[in-house]
Amino acid sequence: MRKTLCLLAALLLAPLPAAAQDQSALDEFRAAVAQMRAELLQPGERVEGWDRGGADPDAELRALGADRYYFLNRDGGALGVTILTDRPIADFAPAGWRIADSYGAAGEALETPQLDFMPFSARYVMASRARIWKQNDAGCWRNISHALLYEIPGTAPTEGDEIIPLMFRMAILALEDQTVCSRADGNRAGGYRTRFFLPDGRSLPHLSSPDDLVTIVPAAPIERLIRPAPPAPPGGAPPA
Predict the structure, then answer these.
(1) What is the pLDDT of residue 240?
(2) What's the mean pLDDT in 204-220?
(3) By CB distance 3.0 to 4.6 Å, which of 64, 65, 146, 164 could disulfide with 129?
(4) Of 99, 77, 72, which Cα lies nearest the Cα of 2?
(5) Closest-CA residue to 163 (of 5, 31, 7)
(6) How far are the Cα atoms of 17, 41, 160 from residue 157, in angstroms, in the given order?
């Protein structure tokens, strides 16, 4: 994500002749979306049997009670939340959060929907709703039904915040009409590792990370569970 923010910043700060500014900005936006899609969905090798076997964390969570337990997703230092529910996003978002942008419709009926809350920064959180279905033992999704970009009032701005509203739109458009599937391995005690694939079994290495971990946790207010990734150290050096 940080790499994409840098790309967007460079595009937004580049000077353009006034007469060509609107069209050039649109062309650059489309090119940036295409580049994001190409990077995120660049396929790796085909994996035989990728959608057979593995773990079924959704079944584990539902057995515990989907209204009493959530998934906590560790992703690149950030903590996000997934909720298996047919209720709308607004039922779980804190009342004090402000809607900065929206996409889709809140009332669309979906089979086996899930909600995801992922902090883009300390100030902005993206919430999305999508339908999940099974391809053999793997879970798949295609297109977001409803998404909200929330701004948390009173939060100090951080580097890159100014282009997150644009990134919200880019992230949705980059994955529009693209089917992505996932295979989980692990167990409830140790957590689940997730690998992502195209429906034909080609891996998606840019979406998969061995450091990411999904765990089942007791339900709690969203603001108590999510956490943005820590800021990068000065000069991009790894933290001590």
Answers:
(1) 42
(2) 93
(3) 146
(4) 77
(5) 5
(6) 30, 31, 9
Q: What angle do CA 146, 34, 83 make, to 5 degrees?
A: 25
Tokens of 65: 């009670």
Name the token pair of 169.
Answer: 């739109």
Residue type, 214: V
HEC secondary structure over 176-239:
CCCEEEEEEEEECCCEEEEEEECCCCEECCCCCCCCCEEEEEECCCHHHHCECCCCCCHHHCCC
Burial state string for 224-240 with b = 16 or more CB within 10 A and e = fewer than 16: ebbebbeeeeeeeeeee
Q: Which two tokens stand for residue 58?
A: 């959704």
Confidence class for position 71, pLDDT limits 50, 70, 90: very high
Q: Which two tokens stand for residue 26?
A: 């649109």
What tokens were used for 94? Answer: 């804190």
Does the pTM surpass 0.90? The reply is no
Mean pLDDT of the chain: 87
Measured between alpha carbons, how far is residue 136 from residues 41, 50, 101, 221 in Å? 21, 10, 36, 33
> What's the average model confidence in pLDDT over 215-230?
95
